[in-house]
Design a protein that fits this description.
11 helices, 6 strands, globular, six-stranded mixed sheet, alpha/beta, 11% strand, 269 residues
Length: 269
Amino acid sequence: MLRSVPLAILLLACLGCSALPTRPLSLPSRYTLVREPLVVYSDFPVDAHHRLLDELISRRADVSRMLGLPGSGERVHVYLFESTDRFKRFMRMYHPEMPARRAFFLETDTRLLVYAQWGDRVAEDLRHEVTHAYLHAVVPSLPLWLDEGLAEYFEVPRGYAGLNRENLSAVVTRIDRGAWAPDLRRLEGLAPNAEMTHDEYAESWAWVHFLLHGGSGGAELLRGYLADLRDDAATEPLSQRVASVIPAPGEVLGSHVRQLASITALPAQ
């Protein structure tokens, strides 16, 4: 989940952190760990060689390699909340517009930030939100559906080839119920700050996985689109390019999902 936030709100939060370091609603600040490009802030010690940090750092190279994007040296500031209650209270205080989530990516004019609560699903959450940061460092004008679809793709552990079983299960269920009607143009019409449904997350992931692994030149289409989007935010929608190369793309997408399901153990991981 990502949002752009006014810099004034961010500064208010950071000022509260520095002026009143013991305030229960301040940002985590007791420990600072730098593992480029990550800067991790917490009120509990985090091992500098934690395997999750190793994976997050490697994920930047994965994103660049898979999507044909240049690397970026821009730092990503990660704030880890040890207490779920404190995380929720902090978000209600400083970002009341946000829906209830375990983690967020936020972007200002000068910083890329991730807020997350340390819990059972922190690895999944951080892979997702840090992916947003890596993407926005080089392609700040990503349409919402693609931003979330790529984050859903990269939130699974390395070695899974982007296979998000939870999303796969959701799509297969819709197909079985006769409720599957993929529409890339509809996803492209979502407002930048729209609150996507679970079905929209799943469909966005399915399009990304299909483009990267479904053949038919999809990977080249996606990489070319991202390259053009970096140069011109008003470039033609990806759906137009897909339709010009892949006949009946919705049907081909459905076949790709069915094939994945036939070789994948469900339910979700």
